[in-house]
Amino acid sequence: xxxxxxxxxxxxxxxxxxxxxxxxxxxxxxxxxxxxxxxxxxxxxxxxxxxxxxxxxxxxxxxxxxxxxxxxxxxxxxxxxxxxxxxxxxxxxxxxxxxxxxxxxxxxxxxxxxxxxxxxxxxxxxxxxxxxxxxxxxxxxxxxxxxxxxxxxxxxxxxxxxxxxxxxxxxxxxxxxxxxxxxxxxxxxxxxxxxxxxxxxxxxxxxxxxxxxxxxxxxx
Amino acid sequence: xxxxxxxxxxxxxxxxxxxxxxxxxxxxxxxxxxxxxxxxxxxxxxxxxxxxxxxxxxxxxxxxxxxxxxxxxxxxxxxxxxxxxxxxxxxxxxxxxxxxxxxxxxxxxxxxxxxxxxxxxxxxxxxxxxxxxxxxxxxxxxxxxxxxxxxxxxxxxxxxxxxxxxxxxxxxxxxxxxxxxxxxxxxxxxxxxxxxxxxxxxxxxxxxxxxxxxxxxxxxxxxxxxxxxxxxxxxxxxxxxxxxxxxxxxxxxxxxxxxxxxxxxxxxxxxxxxxxxxxxxxxxxxxxxxxxxxxxxxxxxxxxxxxxxxxxxxxxxxxxxxxxxxxxxxxxxxxxxxxxxxxxxxxxxxxxxxxxxxxxxxxxxxxxxxxxxxxxxxxxxxxxxxxxxxxxxxxxxxxxxxxxxxxxxxxxxxxxxxxxxxxxxxxxxxxxxxxxxxxxxxxxxxxxxxxxxxxxxxxxxxxxxxxxxxxxxxxxxxxxxx
Amino acid sequence: xxxxxxxxxxxxxxxxxxxxxxxxxxxxxxxxxxxxxxxxxxxxxxxxxxxxxxxxxxxxxxxxxxxxxxxxxxxxxxxxxxxxxxxxxxxxxxxxxxxxxxxxxxxxxxxxxxxxxxxxxxxxxxxxxxxxxxxxxxxxxxxxxxxxxxxxxxxxxxxxxxxxxxxxxxxxxxxxxxxxxxxxxxxxxxxxxxxxxxxxxxxxxxxxxxxxxxxxxxxxxxxxxxxxxxxxxxxxxxxxxxxxxxxxxxxxxxxxxxxxxxxxxxxxxxxxxxxxxxxxxxxxxxxxxxxxxxxxxxxxxxxxxxxxxxxxxxxx
Amino acid sequence: xxxxxxxxxxxxxxxxxxxxxxxxxxxxxxxxxxxxxxxxxxxxxxxxxxxxxxxxxxxxxxxxxxxxxxxxxxxxxxxxxxxxxxxxxxxxxxxxxxxxxxxxxxxxxxxxxxxxxxxxxxxxxxxxxxxxxxxxxxxxxxxxxxxxxxxxxxxxxxxxxxxxxxxxxxxxxxxxxxxxxxxxxxxxxxxxxxxxxxxxxxxxxxxxxxxxxxxxxxxxxxxxxxxxxxxxxxxxxxxxxxxxxxxxxxxxxxxxxxxxxxxxxxxxxxxxxxxxxxxxxxxxxxxxxxxxxxxxxxxxxxxxxxxxxxxxxxxxxxxxxxxxxxxxxxxxxxxxxxxxxxxxxxxxxxxxxxxxxxxxxxxxxxxxxxxxxxxxxxxxxxxxxxxxxxxxxxxxxxxxxxxxxxxxxxxxxxxxxxxxxxxxxxxxxxxxxxxxxxxxxxxxxxxxxxxxxxxxxxxxxxxxxxxxxxxxxxxxxxxxxxxxxxxxxxxxxxxxxxxxxxxxxxxxxxxxxxxxxxxxxxxxxxxxxxxxxxxxxxxxxxxxxxxxxxxxxxxxxxxxxxxxxxxxxxxxxxxxxxxxxxxxxxxxxxxxxxxxxxxxxxxxxxxxxxxxxxxxxxxxxxxxxxxxxxxxxxxxxxxxxxxxxxxxxxxxxxxxxxxxxxxxxxxxxxxxxxxx
Lengths: 220, 482, 316, 676
Hints:
heterotetramer, B: 19 helices, 2 strands, D: two-stranded antiparallel sheet
């Protein structure tokens, strides 16, 4: 009985995660985008905790705290600092207009579910459908990276992708081995720092973070 | 023990150079650490050849002929490249393209980069493999953007975004792998250990693994530079410092391909049919053909050889995709000779560009007249990479082509066209650079050309005679790749 | 296989041909003169001319090289050899195997090449012009000749002239369409090779139209005599080849000396007719423009090829 | 191994010692003393030795051995059989003459260049030897490509000239494509279990269609090296570009290795020959023959002209080969053997006289610095020796008796005359047509060499500026001692091959037996040295000795008679100008003028750009440019196609990171769909 309850909670959180993914896809303002990202992290932490509690996998507690520190607190904070320092206030322009993006996103989500169902069948009872949701949000953040035109949202998209991966790792399986998660976390952190450094360099060189300025290297 | 050394030296070197990388003797230190790594790798190799496969640190590390040969190769090319980068970087500094701080960054990152690659090769844990590969990406991103020019920043940014995204897909694939393995091995650390997965590979869930392989192939394939995931590669090679280009196409691509092959083995075991092989053959052919046609349009010399790397990676992927002892043998051999030849070419190209002050091939002329060593090095290197006997590249291409002609005749026309176009393109551009009148200036530091000719000599030897222990080594590796 | 009598006979025959050749030329000229209502010169005129030339002092250009002086002898030698190979009176020629029809064509080519080289040796405009035109004729006449001979060779299954003649002479009389083609082609080649109308005019000295004369423009005295003589022998040889191929009846068989007088008579009649025919042709036709010569000869070439083809089609 | 003699081992040693010389040539000692004085003579000696071993090999049974080199399962296999022996003889004997010549020719080179030339030259020789000795696909390919590479570097010796660079590029490109085709042919033939020895390839039995694929690949692969149309374009560019001894090597020997490869693959490795293949070879051969000679007639660059004649002669060889294949395919091995012998004999002959001619051209170039015939003239007075050797070569290549060119063409004709034994009506009536082509080509060759010799050596210097004292053409000294010796060697070859064909015929008969299992008929084999009787004495016979004796004696007789009964009085005067007062040297025919009738007759074949001077032209100028049509219907379109494709492919990469991400995304989705 408890199992089912916790599984319901996890599924709920998964749904929330997917919702957030769509929200990010639709979001125009960069600040809100960061907020949403933080929320995603929070949902991730919650689901990890539930999983840990339900399955008694202790290392999941560690990864939950890790997530909390990294993705709810640290990275959003860094991003905030960045956009303050860089005075990024503009709205986000997209390549394709939002509704179209949303439609594509929905299509992707359906595709992901269709792809994941046969696998979810054999997943342990606790984590039905979560794999599909993870895949869906993965594809969604990928889509977001494609359609965004500025550097920062692209990076946020990348981080969101990281989140969905993490979610897949924790919920679909009972969490990856701790050493791996630590490694992943490290990479993400370093990655974020480097991104940060890059923002400054790019801004200095191109007077803007619009990646349209970075289309010089090509075949002509 | 050896493993610890192999990993320890570069890590130590990275830390030391992070502190002293700006000193005058930093380049020597860099080369020294690489030398130590090489020695350790050699010891490890001896041990594995004599003692057979071995695991260490509760199986977190695993060494078998396949990866130990790549370890040795990586350590060797890492060392020679360090030798080459000594005068090269000094000249760059002398030309004012770099300052002390950047040099420090360069040296420490160089060591860290080789550390991550070696870790990736040695790790038995697929998760760690992923982590270190991502680490390699991060390290090289900094190296590519070393000059801080707009072009180099753009290249680095593209490299960073594309590879990170790609490798994220790979991570999802790994998760799926874990997901499948967990069912059989149960939760916990061992389920990601390659050896364990290998043991149970025929019991893993086929549908999951086929799905996983797609993600893994797209992920690692991005780093291998398979068309159409290759777009970061030419930019990164062209804009980074030449030693970095050398190790990128000489080593990093190999390592990424190594990851793909490791996964292929598992998937094949699970699926029983050659699903993964077909995918790899497809990607390989596509890469070979597309890269060949790109080659003919290049103006920037480093960019051109970057495309040639894509082409050769395509050939190797195709060979591994075909499978079978001969093809796998050829693939491994081709990995070796390609990284040796290509790095040698980049060495000569580096000095040539320093002499002329441009990477634009139209402005590089008459190398043989002014500096015969560089000129002949470039000419012979290019002919070698184009598959001219008696150089070793021909050996592997011979095996690949004849096997392909026999097993997949449909593929050979594409290969024929691609090789022809590639030959016309590269040779047609190299010839005027090495021949004819000259317009070169002298260099402030004597160029390091020993590495070039050492590499070419080894490649030449491999074309005429492959030492038996090497053969044995390849055989074991090929046998397990299947 | 070569018994002394046969050898002696072959030598005699070749000598006879060499000596008799100018007579044929004289006879042809005489007939032509008659046909053109001129009072004919003596039939022996060619001999007088040769004698006169031999007595004169030779004059050659200063920058003449050895090639120039060797050529007359080489050409003469080639023609003599050719005359020796062709079975004129009897087919029992021990040396004939030394050179078959292909070699025969080769001999004529050798002579042509040398005379062309000699023509270019002095370095005058006309020498080069003559040489060029001569080679132009040659490069079409030679293959045509080969094709004609091949037709005969295919019929008789041999490339040796005497064997061919024997088989052709022995066969029961039957019309070979292939031989008809060959004969037509041969006539054209004969005219071209011997510098007769309609390709060339042996009597012209109008520089712009002449071919053979332009080549020998620089020769005088004994050199000229040798060349003229060689021309005569060439004509004689060609005619006897034609006779041997297309109407060989009456020629003496191997070892059958009794038949010789008859063969001699037959030959005399045939040659007389041939000479008269030549004269007639030269009277009836006008000289072609030089650029029509290739067409004329390629027709001959095609006829020869057709001859071979019809041989096979008729057979299989 | 053989107890008495081991030609295989010996020739291996010879080839290796060539490599040693190559290595030594690079060693700098003073002004490259070794490279300058010793390398080439030693190379010549080795060549002679190699020729001897080759002769042995023809008569001894086949020998095999392996070297501990090469691929793991595939150490280098070596083998000599009569075929290989024959080609070793060719390589050795011809290269001997050329090497001697080279000693003199390269005398004035600077030390550095000389060292490189010495290296590449001998590597080239050695690689050719290894091509012939190789007994497995891998070693063959290695030797083959090494040959291409070394010759490429020799061709580009004067790489500061753009024309030479592009010539070299074209050469290596086509050579490489051909090599890939050959490689694929081996791929088709090999059994699949990674065994590439020729024995394995022989053993593998192919389905007919695969056999045909293999043959076509091999035919065009080797044809690209042999210079048959339409893959000949590199040849007239590369041969003139190279230094003359190298041109001689390439044209005389390297092209023949391609013939060797064709024979090896077709008769030996594939085995059962289809007559359709023979027809293909015949058609291409005929085209090559005519094309070669007709374009040669248009040239005024001497070496280029000779190069086109190499194309023609390759065509003649192909004709013989094709006839042989047709006969073998229809099950007439005896006639097939005759054709093969004719082809091989012409291979040898062409090697000798074309080598000789290129050396002669080299001497002219050395003496006068001229390659353009239109500037030459009267050279026979300045360089009589060269003139004589060149004349011998010219008569030989024009297939005039009693020299060697005539013998092989005679044999080819005899093969064609066997046509009547064929059952298939088409083939039977086609063969004579190819014979006709050959006849035409022979006559045209004669014309072409009358032009060459007449214009280069006879007459008067055409261009006053070259004849003027101190000008390039003026100090035309004759060839040096060494050069003469080299030419004399090859000229002697022309005579020997022309006068004693029967002994060579028996030699080649063994080769034919070893390949087709049949030789000539009994009547032929027991023919004595005097009479060349390929089939039986009634059918055809030819005795060059008698021929020569008769013609010489008759000529002498005439001379003596004339001198005896008349006189030898001689007066010199100016040439008679036909009434025209001044005969400047420029009124002589030029090379282009000499070819004019041919241009007129075969006009459509050429791509001509002609500029005729107007009547009222102050400085009348006549210019003529003949181009190879193949460029326009084959090569340029291909190049343009490649250009087009790459321009389209370049659109893949327009620098937008979003698009790049999209590629990855689409690939991912597509693959996922695929998996579903």
